[in-house]
Structures are given as C-alpha cells and as structure tokens.
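dude i think i finally got it to work??
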Amino acid sequence: MTPAEELRHLNRLIRQFDSVFKSTRDPLQRDRVTRELRQLKTYKDKLVSFHEIDPRELEDPGEQDELEEQPYLKMAMAAGGEKESPASKVSAEDYQDREVYQLALYLAFFEGEFLALLSETRLKLDFKHSLERDSFYHRFENLRRLLGDLREDTSRMGDYLGQKHEEEMRMRSFKKSRNLIMESDKFFRNLQSFSGGLSEDIGASGSVCLNPRDLLRFERMGGRRHLEGLSVEKALAGLAEFSSEVTRFLKVPQIESQES
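look at this
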C-alpha cells in the first residue's frame, strides 16, 4: 500500500466512524468512536508530515455511506463500545489497511456473536455434520493467528516511516494481508454453504439438525448478544447472511480463491 492509498484508507475510515457516531446515542459507543477518530486523525497528520502526496491521488469516488449495505459491519463498529465484546479490542490504528481493519471487526463480531452457536450444546447435528461444525473452531483460530501477526507488523510500521526499509515492510505486510483475506474468504464461503445447507434441510423437515426450534440463551456476563432469544433455525439463517456479507466485502474472485 502506497502512502497515498493509506491516506485514502484513513479518510474513508474517518468518514465511516463519523457515520457510526451520528447513528448511535449510546454514550459508551460514542466515547469509543471519538477515541478512534482522534487516533486516526493523529496518524493521518503524521503520515502527511512524512510524505508529499499529490491531492489528485486522493480522489475517492466512494463518498456515499459504505455501511448502508453492510449492516453487520456497522453493528461490529458500534459493538466496539461494549467492553464485553471482542470488537472492543479492535482498533483502527492497529492495522495499516482499511480492508484488514474491517475484516478484523467482522472476525471479532463473529467471535462474539456466532462462534458460540457452533458448539455441540447449541447446535446439535448428526455425526457427519458435527465433524464439519467442529472444524470451524480450528480454522477460526488460524485466522486469529494470521490477524495477530499482521497487527504486530503494524505496531512496528511507525518506526519505519520515512526510512529506507519502509517499502520493504509495506510489501511484507501486503503479502500477509492477501493471505489473511484469501483464508478468510474460504472460511466464510464454507460457513455460508454449511449454515445455508442446514437451513435448507430444516426447511425441508430434514433430520440433520436435531434442535432447530431450541431458543438460544447466553450468560449475562458475556454482554448483549445479537442471537439472544432466537431459535437455532433463525440463528443459522443469520449466520448465512453474515457470511454472505463478509464474502461480498472481501470481493475475492473465485478463480483466484480456487487457485490459491
């Protein structure tokens, strides 16, 4: 990512956080968004001070509210104001790339809202599908590891601004970002297929899911849950919808995904 691209990324994040700030009245969420905006603007000023950037390179046609068609991302950004939510640990300044930052929010939202659904106590399936359900836990842990590695790179990037190894560090992070995005795309496409298939089976009165009418309950110490009180059937439909939004956001061409 070039300095100009990074600056465009920062400008778009600032606009998105402005949108979240205007749409919520929760004081904790507004406080968190205010802190994010302050950090983003501070880093933006630092970036501009180190690089001369042609204003024409900053032209960005995407001035509309990008979150309008990404309701789960908007919820994830707002969830950052809830201290019990994994999203509260995701900060824009921890990632150079806007796409990776927003993917981190999606992953945090998945962890806080949907991962618990994929347990044997909440989603009871036949033997074959139970194995597939359990595999998502291990794959998600791998995504968390890849994301953590990227976050470490970003924490060191400030030391390289304006230095001779800056471009080398940016290229290294770019390759890691692409790998994370590709693996995330595979994960959520598989998850969409899995949850969508279960929903279809339930709709056809199949026998794969053994508890489609059970209502989901969570411990209060975990904070508010999007799935609280929903039936397993509706939660699976929500998971398929969420996974679909993530894959649309990532925009990975399927020929590229299959070849990787």
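DSSP finds eight helices and no strands in the chain.
im so relieved honestly
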